[in-house]
Design brief:
InterPro entries: KR_dom, NAD(P)-bd_dom_sf, Sc_DH/Rdtase_CS, SDR_fam
CATH class: Alpha Beta
CATH architecture: 3-Layer(aba) Sandwich
Shape: globular
Strand order of the largest sheet: 3-2-1-4-5-6-9
CATH topology: Rossmann fold
Oligomer: single chain
Protein name: Ketoreductase domain-containing protein
Number of strands: 9
CATH superfamily: NAD(P)-binding Rossmann-like Domain
Bound molecules: NADP nicotinamide-adenine-dinucleotide phosphate
Radius of gyration: 21 Å
Distance between the termini: 51 Å
Strand content: 5-15%
Structural class: alpha/beta
Protein backbone atom coordinates (compact mmCIF):
# COMPACT_ATOMS: atom_id res chain seq x y z
CA UNK A 1 0.00 0.00 0.00
CA UNK A 2 2.80 2.44 0.99
CA UNK A 3 4.57 1.52 -2.26
CA UNK A 4 1.51 2.40 -4.35
CA UNK A 5 1.10 5.74 -2.57
CA UNK A 6 4.79 6.51 -3.12
CA UNK A 7 4.60 5.64 -6.82
CA UNK A 8 1.50 7.88 -7.18
CA UNK A 9 3.27 10.75 -5.42
CA UNK A 10 6.42 10.44 -7.53
CA UNK A 11 4.37 10.18 -10.76
CA UNK A 12 2.34 13.26 -9.79
CA UNK A 13 5.54 15.16 -9.01
CA UNK A 14 7.08 14.18 -12.36
CA UNK A 15 3.93 15.21 -14.27
CA UNK A 16 3.76 18.50 -12.31
CA UNK A 17 7.44 19.21 -13.02
CA UNK A 18 6.99 18.31 -16.70
CA UNK A 19 4.13 20.78 -17.17
CA UNK A 20 5.91 23.42 -15.10
CA UNK A 21 9.00 22.97 -17.29
CA UNK A 22 6.97 22.88 -20.52
CA UNK A 23 5.44 26.28 -19.71
CA UNK A 24 8.52 27.82 -18.05
CA UNK A 25 9.92 31.08 -19.36
CA UNK A 26 13.20 30.87 -17.48
CA UNK A 27 15.43 28.56 -15.48
CA UNK A 28 14.09 27.13 -12.22
CA UNK A 29 16.39 29.13 -9.92
CA UNK A 30 15.30 32.38 -11.54
CA UNK A 31 11.58 31.56 -11.47
CA UNK A 32 11.81 30.60 -7.78
CA UNK A 33 12.94 34.12 -6.84
CA UNK A 34 9.65 36.03 -6.93
CA UNK A 35 9.54 39.76 -7.62
CA UNK A 36 12.41 42.19 -8.15
CA UNK A 37 13.73 43.78 -4.95
CA UNK A 38 12.95 47.48 -5.34
CA UNK A 39 15.25 48.43 -2.45
CA UNK A 40 18.25 47.15 -4.44
CA UNK A 41 17.70 49.66 -7.28
CA UNK A 42 15.76 52.59 -5.80
CA UNK A 43 17.93 55.76 -5.86
CA UNK A 44 20.77 53.77 -7.44
CA UNK A 45 22.49 54.83 -10.69
CA UNK A 46 21.93 52.40 -13.55
CA UNK A 47 23.85 52.86 -16.82
CA UNK A 48 22.31 50.98 -19.76
CA UNK A 49 23.92 50.59 -23.20
CA UNK A 50 21.67 49.84 -26.18
CA UNK A 51 18.87 51.82 -24.51
CA UNK A 52 17.64 53.40 -27.76
CA UNK A 53 15.33 50.45 -28.53
CA UNK A 54 14.52 46.77 -27.98
CA UNK A 55 15.21 45.19 -24.60
CA UNK A 56 17.41 48.12 -23.49
CA UNK A 57 14.53 50.58 -23.84
CA UNK A 58 12.23 48.33 -21.80
CA UNK A 59 14.93 47.84 -19.16
CA UNK A 60 15.27 51.63 -18.88
CA UNK A 61 11.49 51.96 -18.37
CA UNK A 62 11.39 49.26 -15.68
CA UNK A 63 14.45 50.54 -13.81
CA UNK A 64 12.91 54.06 -13.88
CA UNK A 65 9.65 52.64 -12.49
CA UNK A 66 11.59 51.07 -9.63
CA UNK A 67 13.01 54.47 -8.68
CA UNK A 68 16.48 54.24 -10.23
CA UNK A 69 18.48 57.14 -11.66
CA UNK A 70 19.53 56.39 -15.20
CA UNK A 71 22.25 56.96 -17.77
CA UNK A 72 21.09 55.79 -21.18
CA UNK A 73 23.50 55.13 -24.05
CA UNK A 74 23.49 54.08 -27.70
CA UNK A 75 24.54 55.75 -30.96
CA UNK A 76 21.17 57.31 -31.91
CA UNK A 77 20.72 60.35 -29.71
CA UNK A 78 17.26 61.12 -31.12
CA UNK A 79 16.00 57.72 -30.00
CA UNK A 80 17.57 58.20 -26.56
CA UNK A 81 15.69 61.52 -26.28
CA UNK A 82 12.47 59.71 -27.19
CA UNK A 83 13.09 57.01 -24.58
CA UNK A 84 13.91 59.62 -21.93
CA UNK A 85 10.66 61.47 -22.65
CA UNK A 86 8.70 58.23 -22.13
CA UNK A 87 10.28 57.31 -18.78
CA UNK A 88 8.15 57.49 -15.65
CA UNK A 89 9.48 57.18 -12.09
CA UNK A 90 10.81 58.85 -8.96
CA UNK A 91 13.87 60.26 -10.81
CA UNK A 92 12.42 60.68 -14.32
CA UNK A 93 13.10 62.82 -16.22
CA UNK A 94 15.46 64.99 -14.06
CA UNK A 95 17.56 62.02 -12.92
CA UNK A 96 17.95 60.60 -16.43
CA UNK A 97 21.10 61.47 -18.39
CA UNK A 98 21.68 60.82 -22.06
CA UNK A 99 25.17 59.68 -23.00
CA UNK A 100 25.51 58.86 -26.70
CA UNK A 101 28.36 56.49 -27.47
CA UNK A 102 29.63 54.06 -30.07
CA UNK A 103 31.05 50.90 -28.51
CA UNK A 104 33.28 50.47 -31.55
CA UNK A 105 34.89 53.90 -31.15
CA UNK A 106 38.02 52.78 -29.26
CA UNK A 107 39.62 53.18 -25.85
CA UNK A 108 40.05 56.97 -25.67
CA UNK A 109 36.46 57.73 -26.58
CA UNK A 110 35.08 55.06 -24.21
CA UNK A 111 37.32 56.31 -21.40
CA UNK A 112 35.80 59.76 -21.92
CA UNK A 113 32.30 58.25 -21.83
CA UNK A 114 33.04 56.53 -18.50
CA UNK A 115 34.40 59.78 -17.01
CA UNK A 116 31.23 61.60 -18.12
CA UNK A 117 29.00 58.85 -16.72
CA UNK A 118 30.81 58.99 -13.38
CA UNK A 119 30.49 62.79 -13.28
CA UNK A 120 26.69 62.81 -13.80
CA UNK A 121 25.99 61.59 -10.25
CA UNK A 122 29.21 62.44 -8.37
CA UNK A 123 27.87 61.37 -4.97
CA UNK A 124 27.34 57.78 -5.99
CA UNK A 125 28.91 57.11 -9.39
CA UNK A 126 27.60 54.17 -11.42
CA UNK A 127 26.08 51.40 -9.28
CA UNK A 128 24.86 49.11 -12.09
CA UNK A 129 26.40 48.83 -15.57
CA UNK A 130 23.97 47.06 -17.89
CA UNK A 131 25.89 45.81 -20.93
CA UNK A 132 22.95 45.39 -23.26
CA UNK A 133 24.02 46.81 -26.66
CA UNK A 134 24.86 44.36 -29.41
CA UNK A 135 25.74 44.50 -33.07
CA UNK A 136 23.07 43.43 -35.59
CA UNK A 137 22.85 39.65 -35.99
CA UNK A 138 21.38 38.43 -39.27
CA UNK A 139 21.37 34.62 -39.64
CA UNK A 140 23.73 33.21 -42.28
CA UNK A 141 25.60 30.00 -42.91
CA UNK A 142 29.05 29.81 -41.30
CA UNK A 143 30.40 29.54 -44.85
CA UNK A 144 29.11 33.03 -45.71
CA UNK A 145 30.56 34.91 -42.74
CA UNK A 146 32.72 37.81 -43.91
CA UNK A 147 35.76 39.16 -42.10
CA UNK A 148 34.09 42.58 -41.93
CA UNK A 149 30.99 41.17 -40.20
CA UNK A 150 32.87 39.17 -37.57
CA UNK A 151 35.17 42.10 -36.80
CA UNK A 152 32.18 44.44 -36.48
CA UNK A 153 30.38 41.98 -34.17
CA UNK A 154 33.40 41.47 -31.93
CA UNK A 155 34.23 45.21 -31.87
CA UNK A 156 30.82 45.97 -30.30
CA UNK A 157 29.84 42.82 -28.38
CA UNK A 158 33.26 41.96 -26.98
CA UNK A 159 36.03 44.56 -27.41
CA UNK A 160 33.94 47.70 -26.73
CA UNK A 161 32.11 46.02 -23.86
CA UNK A 162 35.37 44.91 -22.23
CA UNK A 163 37.04 48.33 -22.70
CA UNK A 164 34.06 50.05 -21.08
CA UNK A 165 34.28 47.59 -18.18
CA UNK A 166 38.02 48.11 -17.73
CA UNK A 167 37.57 51.89 -17.66
CA UNK A 168 34.71 51.71 -15.16
CA UNK A 169 36.21 49.12 -12.81
CA UNK A 170 38.72 51.44 -11.04
CA UNK A 171 35.84 53.75 -10.01
CA UNK A 172 33.81 50.81 -8.69
CA UNK A 173 36.78 49.26 -6.90
CA UNK A 174 37.52 52.56 -5.19
CA UNK A 175 33.95 52.59 -3.84
CA UNK A 176 34.13 48.87 -3.02
CA UNK A 177 30.94 48.10 -4.95
CA UNK A 178 29.54 47.78 -8.45
CA UNK A 179 27.30 45.37 -10.35
CA UNK A 180 27.61 44.35 -14.02
CA UNK A 181 24.45 43.04 -15.67
CA UNK A 182 25.43 41.42 -18.95
CA UNK A 183 22.81 40.69 -21.62
CA UNK A 184 24.34 37.63 -23.15
CA UNK A 185 22.24 35.04 -24.97
CA UNK A 186 21.23 31.39 -25.18
CA UNK A 187 23.70 31.57 -28.07
CA UNK A 188 26.37 32.13 -25.41
CA UNK A 189 25.52 28.79 -23.79
CA UNK A 190 24.70 26.49 -26.69
CA UNK A 191 25.50 26.32 -30.41
CA UNK A 192 23.39 28.74 -32.48
CA UNK A 193 23.38 27.43 -36.05
CA UNK A 194 23.20 30.35 -38.48
CA UNK A 195 24.72 32.71 -35.90
CA UNK A 196 28.24 31.35 -35.38
CA UNK A 197 29.95 34.70 -34.90
CA UNK A 198 27.21 36.10 -32.65
CA UNK A 199 27.39 32.88 -30.61
CA UNK A 200 31.19 33.16 -30.38
CA UNK A 201 30.92 36.77 -29.19
CA UNK A 202 28.41 35.82 -26.47
CA UNK A 203 30.53 32.84 -25.32
CA UNK A 204 33.41 35.34 -25.09
CA UNK A 205 31.52 37.76 -22.83
CA UNK A 206 30.29 34.90 -20.66
CA UNK A 207 33.87 33.75 -20.15
CA UNK A 208 35.11 37.27 -19.48
CA UNK A 209 32.44 38.27 -16.97
CA UNK A 210 32.32 35.00 -15.01
CA UNK A 211 36.11 35.26 -14.69
CA UNK A 212 35.89 38.93 -13.69
CA UNK A 213 33.50 37.98 -10.89
CA UNK A 214 35.69 35.14 -9.67
CA UNK A 215 38.66 37.56 -9.45
CA UNK A 216 36.89 40.57 -7.97
CA UNK A 217 33.87 39.38 -5.97
CA UNK A 218 35.93 39.75 -2.78
CA UNK A 219 36.23 43.46 -3.62
CA UNK A 220 32.50 44.11 -3.89
CA UNK A 221 32.06 43.55 -7.64
CA UNK A 222 29.00 41.56 -8.67
CA UNK A 223 28.14 40.08 -12.07
CA UNK A 224 24.82 38.79 -13.38
CA UNK A 225 25.02 37.17 -16.81
CA UNK A 226 21.59 36.94 -18.45
CA UNK A 227 21.10 34.47 -21.30
CA UNK A 228 17.81 35.05 -23.15
CA UNK A 229 16.52 32.83 -25.93
CA UNK A 230 14.18 34.39 -28.53
CA UNK A 231 12.65 37.65 -27.23
CA UNK A 232 9.85 39.61 -28.85
CA UNK A 233 11.15 43.11 -29.60
CA UNK A 234 8.84 43.51 -32.59
CA UNK A 235 7.11 46.68 -31.36
CA UNK A 236 8.67 48.71 -34.16
CA UNK A 237 8.43 46.12 -36.94
CA UNK A 238 6.25 46.98 -39.89
CA UNK A 239 3.02 44.92 -39.78
CA UNK A 240 3.00 42.27 -42.51
CA UNK A 241 6.74 42.54 -43.23
CA UNK A 242 8.66 39.26 -43.71
CA UNK A 243 10.50 39.75 -40.40
CA UNK A 244 7.27 40.48 -38.56
CA UNK A 245 5.56 37.39 -40.04
CA UNK A 246 8.50 35.15 -39.19
CA UNK A 247 8.66 36.55 -35.66
CA UNK A 248 4.97 35.98 -35.03
CA UNK A 249 5.42 32.28 -35.95
CA UNK A 250 8.11 31.91 -33.27
CA UNK A 251 7.41 31.54 -29.54
CA UNK A 252 9.20 34.52 -28.00
CA UNK A 253 9.18 35.80 -24.43
CA UNK A 254 8.01 39.43 -24.42
CA UNK A 255 10.67 42.12 -24.05
CA UNK A 256 8.85 43.34 -20.98
CA UNK A 257 8.96 39.92 -19.23
CA UNK A 258 12.62 39.55 -20.27
CA UNK A 259 13.47 42.92 -18.69
CA UNK A 260 11.45 42.05 -15.57
CA UNK A 261 13.25 38.71 -15.11
CA UNK A 262 16.61 40.38 -15.77
CA UNK A 263 15.97 42.79 -12.91
CA UNK A 264 14.76 39.91 -10.71
CA UNK A 265 18.02 38.06 -11.43
CA UNK A 266 20.18 41.09 -10.69
CA UNK A 267 18.39 42.24 -7.53
CA UNK A 268 18.49 38.70 -6.11
CA UNK A 269 22.22 38.52 -6.85
CA UNK A 270 22.02 35.62 -9.31
CA UNK A 271 25.26 34.89 -11.15
CA UNK A 272 23.53 33.63 -14.28
CA UNK A 273 19.92 33.49 -15.49
CA UNK A 274 18.26 31.92 -18.52
CA UNK A 275 15.10 33.41 -20.05
CA UNK A 276 13.29 31.48 -22.77
CA UNK A 277 10.36 29.30 -23.72
CA UNK A 278 10.80 25.76 -24.96
CA UNK A 279 12.45 24.21 -26.87
CA UNK A 280 15.41 26.57 -26.41
CA UNK A 281 15.34 26.29 -22.60
CA UNK A 282 15.40 22.48 -22.78
CA UNK A 283 18.36 22.60 -25.18
CA UNK A 284 20.23 24.91 -22.78
CA UNK A 285 19.67 22.46 -19.91
CA UNK A 286 20.81 19.55 -22.10
CA UNK A 287 23.97 21.29 -23.31
CA UNK A 288 24.83 22.42 -19.77
CA UNK A 289 24.11 19.21 -17.86
CA UNK A 290 24.24 16.46 -20.51
CA UNK A 291 26.54 17.85 -23.19
CA UNK A 292 26.90 14.62 -25.16
CA UNK A 293 23.13 14.50 -25.65
CA UNK A 294 22.86 18.28 -26.07
CA UNK A 295 25.44 18.45 -28.84
CA UNK A 296 23.87 15.38 -30.49
CA UNK A 297 20.53 17.24 -30.62
CA UNK A 298 22.19 20.39 -31.95
CA UNK A 299 23.93 18.38 -34.68
CA UNK A 300 20.50 17.10 -35.76
CA UNK A 301 19.16 20.66 -35.90
CA UNK A 302 22.10 22.67 -37.26
CA UNK A 303 21.80 22.45 -41.04
CA UNK A 304 17.97 22.56 -40.90
CA UNK A 305 18.05 25.76 -38.85
CA UNK A 306 20.35 27.51 -41.32
CA UNK A 307 17.98 26.44 -44.11
CA UNK A 308 14.95 27.66 -42.12
CA UNK A 309 16.67 31.02 -41.57
CA UNK A 310 17.38 31.36 -45.29
CA UNK A 311 13.70 30.62 -46.01
CA UNK A 312 12.53 33.14 -43.38
CA UNK A 313 10.88 30.28 -41.42
CA UNK A 314 10.61 29.56 -37.71
CA UNK A 315 14.15 28.94 -36.40
CA UNK A 316 13.12 28.00 -32.87
CA UNK A 317 10.42 25.34 -33.43
CA UNK A 318 10.23 21.64 -32.49
CA UNK A 319 9.86 20.98 -36.24
CA UNK A 320 13.64 21.41 -36.60
CA UNK A 321 14.12 18.31 -34.44
CA UNK A 322 11.12 16.20 -35.36
CA UNK A 323 10.18 17.31 -38.87
CA UNK A 324 11.44 19.00 -41.98
CA UNK A 325 12.54 22.63 -41.63
CA UNK A 326 9.42 23.65 -43.50
CA UNK A 327 8.47 27.17 -44.57
CA UNK A 328 5.75 28.58 -42.26
N1 LIG B 1 16.10 40.10 -29.03
C1 LIG B 1 16.42 38.84 -28.78
O1 LIG B 1 15.75 37.89 -29.21
C2 LIG B 1 17.65 38.54 -27.95
C3 LIG B 1 17.89 37.20 -27.59
C4 LIG B 1 19.00 36.91 -26.83
C5 LIG B 1 19.87 37.91 -26.43
N2 LIG B 1 19.61 39.21 -26.80
C6 LIG B 1 20.58 40.23 -26.38
O2 LIG B 1 19.91 41.25 -25.69
C7 LIG B 1 20.50 42.51 -25.99
C8 LIG B 1 19.46 43.46 -26.55
O3 LIG B 1 18.88 42.85 -27.67
P1 LIG B 1 17.81 43.62 -28.60
O4 LIG B 1 17.15 42.58 -29.43
O5 LIG B 1 17.00 44.54 -27.79
O6 LIG B 1 18.81 44.42 -29.52
P2 LIG B 1 18.48 45.48 -30.67
O7 LIG B 1 17.02 45.74 -30.76
O8 LIG B 1 19.24 45.02 -31.87
O9 LIG B 1 19.17 46.79 -30.07
C9 LIG B 1 20.55 46.86 -30.01
C10 LIG B 1 20.90 48.10 -29.23
O10 LIG B 1 22.32 48.22 -29.25
C11 LIG B 1 22.67 49.52 -29.71
N3 LIG B 1 23.91 49.44 -30.45
C12 LIG B 1 24.18 48.73 -31.56
N4 LIG B 1 25.45 48.96 -31.99
C13 LIG B 1 25.99 49.82 -31.10
C14 LIG B 1 27.25 50.45 -30.98
N5 LIG B 1 28.21 50.27 -31.90
N6 LIG B 1 27.48 51.28 -29.94
C15 LIG B 1 26.51 51.52 -29.02
N7 LIG B 1 25.29 50.97 -29.07
C16 LIG B 1 25.03 50.13 -30.10
C17 LIG B 1 21.50 49.95 -30.61
O11 LIG B 1 21.36 51.36 -30.61
P3 LIG B 1 21.94 52.35 -31.73
O12 LIG B 1 21.62 51.74 -33.06
O13 LIG B 1 21.20 53.62 -31.46
O14 LIG B 1 23.40 52.46 -31.45
C18 LIG B 1 20.32 49.35 -29.85
O15 LIG B 1 19.90 50.23 -28.83
C19 LIG B 1 21.64 42.22 -26.96
O16 LIG B 1 22.84 42.11 -26.24
C20 LIG B 1 21.26 40.89 -27.55
O17 LIG B 1 22.39 40.15 -27.97
C21 LIG B 1 18.53 39.55 -27.55
Amino acid sequence: MVGVVLICMVTTAIIWLFFKFAKAEGDFTLLAKGAAKREEVEDKVVWITGASGGIGEVLAKQFANLGAKLIISARREVELERVKAELVGKHAPHGVKILPLDLASGKESLKEAVEKAESFFPDSGVDYMVHNAAHERPKTSILDVTEASFKATFDVNVVGTIILTQQLLPFMLKRGKGHFIVMSSAAGKAPAPGQAVYSASKHAVNGYFHTLRSELCGKGIMVTVVCPGPIDTSKNLQAGSATEQKRSSEERVSASRCAELTIVAATHGLKEAWISYQPVLAVMYLVQYMPTLGYFVMDKIGAKRVEAALQQSNTYGWNLLFGQGKKD
